[in-house]
Design goal:
Blueprint lengths: L8 H67 L1
Length: 76
């Protein structure tokens, strides 16, 4: 006696949903990548100016510290 096998619809639904989720993930990841690339392109020129300002600020703080140290040496 052979028993006929029924098609397992619940398993097919799980497989279809996993495939749909994987496709949505790939679609979402592609969009995210392009948005990040656009943001990097837009903010890259700002980084150079920020770095230059930080260098100048560090230099001015260093000079102020040297002046304070000289004043302290004169007092002692």
């Amino acid at each position: 006696m052979t028993e006929t096998k029924k098609f397992n619809w619940s398993m097919a639904a799980v497989v279809v949903s996993l495939v749909a989720q994987a496709a949505a993930l790939v679609f979402w990841g592609g969009g995210l990548s392009s948005r990040v690339a656009a943001l990097e392109a837009r903010t890259a020129p700002l980084a150079d100016g920020t770095l230059a300002r930080l260098d100048e600020h560090t230099l001015s703080v260093s000079k102020a510290l040297e002046r304070l140290e000289r004043k302290e040496e004169v007092r002692l």
